[in-house]
Amino acid sequence: MNYLRLSVTDLCNLRCQYCMPKDGIKKSDHQHNLTFEEIDGLVSELIELGVDKVRITGGEPLVRRNIIELITMIGRHNEIKDFAITTNGLLLKSMAKELKTAGIHRVNISLDSMNPTKFEKITRGGKLQEVLDGIEEALRIGLTPVKINVVLIGGFNEDEIVDFVELTKDKDIDVRFIELMPIGEVAHWSVNKFIPNTTVLDKVPLLESIKSKDIHAPASYYKLPGAKGKVGLISAISCKFCKDCNRLRLTSEGKLKYCLHSNNELDLKQLLKGSEDIQRAIQSFVYEKPLEHSIEQGNYVNLDMVRVGG
């Protein structure tokens, strides 16, 4: 388990339909969130246990106040070989240069439609051009490869699959199609709009399978002949990759999770207040991780995606 998904906030400047309820969520009290010093301290503990890959997530991480300061703190750990961030891209154009200076190597951008009207609908108010400008800036300054995460939604964006694949032709962009996962209060909404990732291969038969250098990569990768970027299929529902999972998730409130699809968690913020050996507690917790999740049997996680950290 060498990969930490670090959520720094449950706040977001979008309200994506599959991520949170229409009326939003009850925001966590600021005093319940980990401080920068607590986050950096826990990252240090996890590094000593073998973590060498860190991804900053949210909510939307770029809305957390003074986020560059936190990223700079984490970026000073030389043991981290891969330091990345996942964002919706709205603030990326103005912050990309600072992110790179602070230590971020590359960026993932969530984008489910390249149609301005559809994008505004699925995000409940987002402006597509702001995201596209952020992508161009990330490419310009070298936060690459830029990975675009597309959640496949039946009846919404399957007609844009070809357009997304075309983005990989001439630019250092990897497009990854992710199966819609039933999580939190929008679980049943998601189930009704699920389509399998095999739809991508049906739509673009020219895609050729390629081998990933990362044995833990959740995506199966493909490529158009002669393309600069890749196409990834992440099939958490139709084809589980639990046996290769190397991820831990830490929520903004300090709850450690060993599986996105499990309600089990370890309260590290509470442990910081006591004298218990945190590393030993983490090891004991992780050893309880089941062989695989059972989401396909209707065992959905209670937390909304915006709180889990994706």
Which key features would you list for this structure?
alpha/beta, TIM Barrel, twelve-stranded mixed beta sheet
What is the level 1 CATH name? Alpha Beta
Question: What's the order of the H and E elements?
Answer: EHEHEHEHHEHEHHEEEEEEHHH
The CATH topology label is: TIM Barrel
> Kindly, what is the distance between the CA atoms of the first and last residues, rounded to a whole number of angstroms?
17 Å
- Major beta sheet, strand line-up: 7-8-9-6-5-4-3-2-1-10-11-12
Give a short account of the largest sheet. Answer: 12 strands, mixed
Q: Judging by the overall fold, what is the CATH architecture? A: Alpha-Beta Barrel
The helicity comes to: 25-40%
Number of helices, where a helix is a run of at least 4 consecutive DSSP H or I residues: 11
Class by alpha and beta content: alpha/beta
Number of strands: 12
Alpha carbon gyration radius: 19 Å
Low-pLDDT residue spans: none
In total, how many domains does the architecture comprise? 1
Strand content: 15-25%
Q: What is the average of the pLDDT values? A: 90
Q: CATH superfamily, please? A: Aldolase class I
Given the C-alpha coordinates, what overall shape results?
globular
